[in-house]
Amino acid sequence: MANLIEMAAHDLAPRIKSGELTAEETAREVLRLIEEKDPAINAYLAVDPESVIEDAQEVDRRVAAGDTTGPLAGVPIAIKDAICTKGLETTCASRILEGFVPPYDATVIARLRAADAVIVGKTNMDQFGMGSSNENSGFDVCRNPLDTSRVPGGSSGGSAAALAAGTAVLALGEDTGGSIRQPAAFCGVVGLKPTYGRVSRFGIIAYGSSFDQVGPMARNVEDCARLLGVIAGHDPMDTTSASEAVPDYTTDLKRGIEGVRIGVPEEYLAEGLDPSVKESVSRAIERMESLGARVESVHLPHTEYAVAAYYILVTAEASSNLARYDGVKYGYRGEDGGAPAVDAPASSGAGVGAPAPAPEDRLDAMYGSTRSGGFGPEVKRRIMLGTYVLSAGYYDAYYDKAQRVRTLIMGDFDQAFEKVDLLVAPTTPTTAFRIGEKIDDPLQMYLSDVYTVPINLAGVPAISLPCGTDPDGMPIGLQIIGPHFGEERILRAAYAFEEATRS
Amino acid sequence: MSDAAMKYESVIGLEVHAQLLTNSKIFCGCTVAFGGEPNTRVCPICLGMPGVLPVLNRRAVEYTIRMALAVDGHVAETSAFARKNYFYPDLPKGYQISQYDRAGEPISLAGGIEIEGEDGPRFVRLRRIHLEEEAGKSIHNEPGYDPDLSYIDFNRTGVPLMEIVSEPDIRSPREASAYLARLRQILQYIGVCDGNMDEGSLRCDANVSIRKPGDPLGELVEIKNMNSMRSMERALEFEIDRQSELLDDGGRVVRQTRLWDEEKRETFPMRSKEEAHDYRYFPDPDLVTVEIARSWVDEIGEDLPELPDVRMRRIVDEYGLPQDMARQLTEIRARADYFEACVSHAVGDAAGGASGGVAGDARTVSNWMLSELLRVQHENHMNQQTLGARIPPDHLAQLLGQIKDEKISGKIGKDVLDIMAETGKAPAQVIEEQGLVQISDTGELEGVVDGILAEHPDDVAEYRAGKTKLLGFFMGQVMRATQGKANPKMVNELLRKKLAGD
To answer: Which of A236, A123, A225, A139 is nearest to A183 (CA)?
Structure first.
């Protein structure tokens, strides 16, 4: 059954629940496909075949025993390596966490297990979520399955690539400045960044804590909706998680977009936008209009400051969040530059040779070698940026000012959503670029986040779904943005568009 | 204090850290109990493992509000937490969650407490009271550990700490001591900290500068590592002398952090690298703003225990005790509680019985507590709590009742108390088991007295010849013959009668 893993989760799960298919055969098929395809893609960092089969067999046993099973029964899901999985190595794709096996599950993982999903493995990413291409992985670079000379996007590139390659049915990504939507766009899959607080952050390795949000990735909108329903909801372990009730995202999914007011932010169709992306997105907007949506132009006037403000705030938080990787407790530890301390009289100078370094100096040396050796260059760059903007004398000029910009950008979205129900825009200014193309120009790389970053600053939800291809056949992503807790509305519009453009 | 120091006025501010008596840590469910095998009272959250998040312990906030109310602080309506960033192996996240003015209000601002100053009462203003988490403990060169390695125990990591920062209103080491003692008393009274400096549940750093009276504030030196009230006084004295001598010799005080060395009895500068910290405070994005509802503050205020000063005045009024006695009784809340419980039993037991009333009972209880009980406590190495458990207040009341009812003498009472402290038994049982019941039977006593007088005819003659001081000798003989159990009043009367009569 070669197309088992190509199935939609909402098709596969009922068949496993009914006994028509087994979770085990699905699991074996996904493992076979990973073995076959992944060496050329590197979407996965860690797979534990034994536990995959065991988990699947357990689902089958429960089905056979007539027990109730969860909505994702037997569905193979790939997990971004920023999400802690009990007993399965979790590194955030960084050498500094090599060998770290969490003794706990992230809340989203616990919810997936409760829904009887089968966790296939951990997916590649830019280490600690820092990057837009997956080239910042501390391990092998992940490639775009549609053209392996190109990047899959980042930072959740591995999750998007696994879906595009057909080596997972569902995936979890995590989005700090576009890390779900941009790789979804680059790989031609669907990815939703929920409202900040909609999904628990407990067990998500922090990058920018006030931005990070886990979200569903899939090959179709309905699967995204179902997966969101499983992972969303308040968590007492995360006080920043929202207590708003979680609706059934499938109830109104198919009701169409007749009369829905859609705003097109003019600032998102400005210079720097690839013509083929612009054309595709424009055609998508026309298509939505033809489905009954009322389209109008809106302004998000502070957009031009978003990337600058984002990179100040997110690096500030990152510089603190990543301080715990010091070689003391887990993961990689560098050398401390000293022989074991001996009680050599430091002042005697009686032919002792070089004096043994003081314990404090050895500690500093260990910190230095651990962090120099464990973190990749982009992580170091962001830690330095963040440390700088929080330093005495610079705080007001950078961190504080960026916070004020953030407030203005939130205001932009609040005002726009007074007039319209949803915003529609491109997800990225270009399609997937070639590996190596931008890696030496961090500023160009940062600017590829220009349409996704403002959404994280405002904390609102947004989806990316395919809306066409460029002349090279690379997918283009359409971004649909909603107000806080507007996921239902976003999914409904995305579903309508997906149905209308189904080939 | 040296002569040099007399010329200058010292200006001292204290930063006091109090570990709160919550059950669990400030951001996770681990126990805060002192001790335990290293790294057994930890979880992924207090270990700061990747991806974990803090959840604020509401009780820790409540205790801080309690303290704020006890010192007339202004409780913030919203309060926020900040990250204090620095690297140290016993700080697992690489930052400490604390509170910082620039990144949100601390839980309490202003307020103050009154102490006995060098020249009359002094009001020490408080700057703020805030909450933060405790770090772990580094272990170097301790018995049982490899001296070539450093170890870390994270059991204390995440224990809630309340930091109380005073304004520089303290003028001498003795005032600093008085201030710290007062803070400790209040903390213990309101039940938020055990005040135990040995176990580090109460710690203190000081900011010291000196100036000629009327001059602006001098350059400030921070002193750390003072582990007891006495070491704080010594450290401050040393530091004031050091600064005075510097100024006298035409030198300047350098702004720095110094550590107190209790063995050498001196302060020495911390490595400049260690103090050159830029903590890069910023609001902690993992914790939402704490909203402190007025109604919650009012509720906490209503449940606030009686504070030491108020209680002392009430004890003076209610029980008719002198002020210094009442002050001693209220020094420790548990002692004041003991006193009042004991008096209520004494009164209850004596109802309808012997005279004396409330005031009489209170004075007796107080006398016993401040002499005999303190002696027993000292001899048995007990604190007020363990004493109260061994000799509950009703037992002391019963003992005093036995004395009052002349079942035993006061002297025997002290022996009974010793046995009670050892065994935890009720006084009646001790008296019974030891056969200490006072002999008040006239016939029996008369027999003993007659016997003694018959044995000492010469002394009887001398007495009758006018050497009445010998009464004490006869008393002693009777007491010895009865193992101290004879009713002294009756023996006295009998002796006088018999010696005068025949």
So the answer is: A123
